[in-house]
Task: inverse folding
């Protein structure tokens, strides 16, 4: 069935349900970034393969909404005859509905796929047009998606306390103490990574993110109700959870929400879908719109999590060295493609025998495809890696002791002077952020311009954030911390940075139709001791270990301080990774790490 045929089928179903339109977000019942196959409604309907976007379908028109990361990709994957391309944050679903709907129209939405604020914004925009937002009880896409996959039935696994750094009982007790401070009786945990972290369990229900489809309600005494498919619970998991965690079928969650009459229950307004708050209120509970208490605690890594990530970084860095040597050796000969390169990198990581999954779908992009920051290679888009191109590889691994994310760029043959200039400016921005020293409490958004300045100086920029938080064998994109400009989708990065947080450092440059450049390492926020300082100061330790390609660097563009940082970084990479490698791989590493 073509995507145009699917669109027609959806319109027929909407008419049968008495609806004039429907909003299609790319998420699941947990507001996840990456979702299971069963929840890929936007991709099934439109063909869009990105990780963020929405669509609105009306009887005579439709639109798809994506941010600057997907400007090129959405046009390659989604028919312009079927959908108008709408950029965000310049525009929004609510804004478009407010312009395109007519009086009396009924626009449907699934309350299990939107936050309360999203619902309120859409309802207000429609009310201004004398139209109505209607909650559906059955998602109309599911009615026409006849071969829709079933949700995963994979079992849970235990994340050992030694790796987690704290027992689940201790974590739940802390949540209970927080609830007491808020004068609250319970908190609904609906974000899958929050549940996994709080209970020290992991799953395989969502590609790239080791979580399981579930809900949890933690009470003020630390006792917890876990809603999950019974077949996911093994005897080992049951013993691990203990008697203080009561098990229920996931299907019982919606009904359970109505049993809190007179109670004060926390539901995170960003992470809990509208249906959760609606269910609580229908049962007589008072909903407290507070942030999930796990979010910040999970973001500040404990010593065991930091040690685990360091071990994963060494393992992953050695795999990357083996892969990049292969790129330099084999790709200029011809015969390699974006898909074959991604497969080679996966094989290098799998050779560690500790890889659980990739941490996201590998961005293997050559030439013009590199100019799409979140490009996803498919059999249809797969391009040959050819001389004269830049090859960009953005990838990561999920290991039980850590989650990695790294981007490197390799020239295939001889790069142009322009490529080397742009690469060096991106490197200067990367170093500017890596060497930043800032007061404790600085917002991530305050640091973003440090990475952009070398590009701004020559009239260039990039249309994505500079850094995102990273989980501990959890989501590769973890909040609340991030480093981003105020006009980045979602607004400015307003979370203060704290010691123990992990983030990416990934400035880039993208020339449409020609090439893309991004240099990404993961960093750890740590205290900085400065003689005479009258404020507590922080800085970054770079965690990722892998050479930055020397032939793309213009040494004359680097300051003495930048050159010192680069040479020190490469000396550290060589010292730590050389014992993990042998033969040609080790020789290649040492050559790439020679001081500039």
Result:
């Amino acid at each position: 069935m073509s995507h145009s045929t699917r669109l027609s089928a959806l319109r027929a179903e909407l008419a049968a349900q008495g609806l004039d339109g429907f909003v299609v977000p790319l998420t699941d019942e947990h507001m996840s970034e990456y979702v299971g196959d069963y929840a890929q409604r936007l991709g099934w309907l439109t063909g869009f393969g990105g990780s963020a976007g929405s669509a609105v379908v009306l009887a005579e028109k439709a639109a798809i909404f994506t941010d600057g990361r997907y400007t090129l990709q959405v046009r390659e994957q989604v028919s312009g005859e079927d959908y108008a391309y709408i950029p965000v944050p310049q525009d929004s679903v609510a804004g478009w509905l407010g312009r395109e709907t007519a009086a009396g129209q009924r626009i449907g939405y699934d309350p299990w796929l939107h936050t309360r604020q999203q619902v309120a914004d859409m309802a207000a925009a429609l009310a201004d047009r004398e139209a109505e937002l209607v909650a559906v009880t059955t998602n109309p896409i599911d009615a026409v998606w006849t071969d829709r996959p079933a949700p995963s039935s994979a079992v849970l696994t235990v994340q050992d306390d030694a790796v987690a750094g704290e027992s689940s009982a201790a974590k739940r007790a802390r949540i209970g103490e927080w609830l007491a401070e808020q004068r609250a009786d319970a908190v609904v945990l609906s974000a899958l990574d929050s549940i996994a972290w709080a209970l020290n369990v992991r799953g395989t229900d969502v590609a790239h993110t080791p979580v399981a489809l579930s809900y949890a309600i933690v009470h003020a005494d630390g006792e917890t109700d876990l809603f999950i498919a019974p077949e996911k619970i093994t005897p080992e998991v049951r013993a691990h959870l203990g008697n203080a965690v009561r098990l229920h079928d996931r299907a019982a969650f919606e009904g359970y929400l109505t049993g809190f009459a007179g109670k004060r229950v926390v539901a995170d307004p960003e992470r809990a879908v509208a249906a959760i708050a609606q269910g609580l209120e229908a049962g007589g509970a008072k909903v407290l719109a507070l942030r999930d208490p796990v979010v910040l605690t999970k973001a500040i890594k404990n010593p065991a999590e930091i040690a685990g990530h360091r071990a994963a970084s060494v393992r992953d860095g050695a795999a990357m060295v083996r892969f990049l040597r292969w790129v330099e050796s084999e790709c200029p000969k011809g015969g390699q493609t974006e898909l074959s390169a991604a497969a080679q990198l996966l094989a290098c990581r799998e050779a560690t025998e500790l890889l659980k999954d990739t941490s996201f779908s590998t961005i293997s992009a050559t030439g013009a495809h590199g100019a799409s920051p979140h490009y996803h290679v498919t059999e249809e888009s797969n391009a040959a890696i050819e001389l004269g191109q830049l090859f960009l590889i953005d990838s990561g691994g999920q290991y039980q002791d850590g989650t990695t994310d790294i981007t490197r760029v390799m020239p295939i043959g001889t790069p142009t002077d322009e490529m080397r200039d742009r690469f060096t400016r991106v490197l200067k921005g990367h170093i500017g952020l890596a060497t930043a020293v800032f007061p404790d409490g600085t917002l991530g958004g305050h640091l973003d311009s440090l990475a952009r300045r070398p590009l701004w100086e020559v009239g260039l920029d990039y249309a994505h954030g500079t850094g995102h938080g990273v989980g501990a064998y959890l989501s590769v994109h973890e909040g609340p911390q991030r480093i981003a400009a105020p006009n980045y989708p979602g607004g400015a990065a307003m979370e203060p940075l704290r010691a123990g947080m992990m983030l990416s450092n990934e400035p880039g440059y993208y020339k449409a139709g020609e090439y893309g450049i991004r240099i990404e390492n993961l960093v750890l926020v740590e205290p900085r001791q400065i003689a005479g300082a009258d404020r507590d100061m922080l800085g970054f330790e770079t965690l990722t270990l892998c050479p930055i390609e020397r032939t793309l660097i213009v040494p004359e563009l680097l300051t003495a301080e930048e050159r010192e940082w680069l040479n020190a970084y490469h000396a550290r990479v060589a010292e730590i990774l050389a014992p993990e490698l042998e033969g040609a791989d080790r020789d290649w590493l040492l050559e790439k790490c020679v001081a500039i």
In short: The chain has three domains: 3-144, 157-297, 300-592. The first strand starts at residue 21 and ends at 25. The longest helix spans residues 303-330. The chain is about 35% helix and 20% strand.
